[in-house]
Amino acid sequence: MLNGEAGPGAQMAMELLTAAAPAARATELIDIVGAHIDGCLYHGVAGLDFARDLAERGARAAVPTTLNVSSIDLIHPDLYRGPEEEARAARELMDAYVTMGCSPTWTCAPYQLAVRPRFGDQVAWGESNAIVFANSVLGARTNRYGDFLDICCAITGRAPASGLHTDEGRRATFHLAVRVPDRLLDEELLYPLLGHVLGQEAGTEVAVISGLDGRADEDRLKSLGAAAASSGAVAMFHVVGVTPEATTLEEAAGGKDPLRTVVVDVDRLNSARKSLEVGSGDLTAVSVGTPHISIRELETLAGLVTGARSKVPFYVNVGRDVLDEASSQQLVEPITKFGATLVTDTCTYITPIMEDLSGVVMTNSGKWAYYAPGNIGVQVVMGSLGECVQSAVSGQVVRGEPW
Amino acid sequence: MTELEYEVLVPGQAEGALIVLEEPLSFWGGFDAETGRIIDNNHSRMGTKLTGSIVAMPHGRGSSSSSSVLAEALRRGTAPAGFILGEPDPILVIGALVAQRLYQASCPILVGPIPVEGAGTWVIDCDKSPPVTKID
What we know:
Radius of gyration of chain B: 13 Å
Structural class of chain A: alpha/beta
Number of helices of chain A: 14
Number of strands of chain A: 14
Number of helices of chain B: 3
Order of helices and strands of chain B: EEEHEEEHEHEEE
Strand order of the largest sheet of chain A: 12-11-10-13-14
Order of helices and strands of chain A: HEEHEHEHHEEHEHEHEHEHEHHEEHEH
Shape of chain A: globular
Strand content of chain A: 5-15%
Structural class of chain B: alpha/beta
Oligomer: heterodimer
Helix content of chain B: 10-25%
Largest sheet of chain B: 5 strands, mixed
Radius of gyration of chain A: 21 Å
Number of strands of chain B: 10
């Protein structure tokens, strides 16, 4: 490929991949069976110049490849409130990746698609929450692929053989011991707050979490991982008795003792919450679905909102495939009747969609709470999905008892 | 002075003030490619301008979109002049490599000991040994 026999596009991708491989501590490349591309989200001219260059050289994905969110909701383009020029550039970027043979899935939660990686599959995924979910929950194997490197892997069908692609790299070296009253394991917000703490404590290490149980379902692990990959460079965690490579703490740690243990108690979770919540004031909006809301979460939401009416803008970020499924299950009507806006292909914290940013926005997402103040300049409070709905109905922040 | 070991991940030359970020920074969501400043509310150096400085930090962090943000900052001329990292970070490396290819922008990235922040000008020159020196 480096000699150009697979075409100038593949040659460029292979040149970049081999130049970056030493930074991934790899001396060779492995075959991959799929890729998820984060580079399709517009961050400026550089990303567009790069994708155009590759596409014009005839580069095409060699393995099944899905696409992350972009800045534009193609299904509801009127939601976009930013500059026209940027919208045009974002559209061109999306087109370039589709030209290269990627599937227009436009979701940050490719693990919610009908086909997803199986246990042990080697893949190259971008999008930090997807990376941590693939490794931790599915048991697929990916390192953290940044924009550019993700598509280079997809085009070459290869990835640097190191880190989380190897058994050794997946061993936990750090133990996060959750010691909270049992009832808190039923609380939705436990998981993003725990994720926030995990990111702060783990750095780039693989952690094993003890003290959780089967109540940590896929949606809660999604939320935990997304928060951890925001406050830290977490690409994988184990949960003893829950995730597939952690039947026991010893298995997760590869038969060795984790080097250090950090205990997480209620105080630690409360201070995580305090650090994520920025400002206080009147409720101006609610945003849920970061990462994109799952079909099960939509079922829960539809149940909570039936017959109610939101007094503030209520945004639900959802992948287009999950939205289709929700439509066929009649879940969309109660949610739109409630007054909620379904946002597909993108997310409310990365692009100008929200109308009023003057007060506080409630979210159930640790990732949204982490990034939205810097990205779009909002103030944030956190609430469970139920609290989000109650707050929207009453038009003010409603929250349960403090922990 | 003992000679410190540095590994070159992205070659090049840089000269500027040294900014040591004790806490790693995610360029996506944490750095504004228009202004060159840190915009992460949770970061202890919120508001600090990184343009033209040599930025040292223990490792990369957060979103995989940081590659795009670094490449865009290099295109605009708002990026740091170079990086010294405690651990290798492919996400920043690919951003620098792509900007080098598209815009001939220079942004050396080294892995090695993090120097102590202080006044003065620092130089990265990957053709020299050691590649990191301080000139007063």
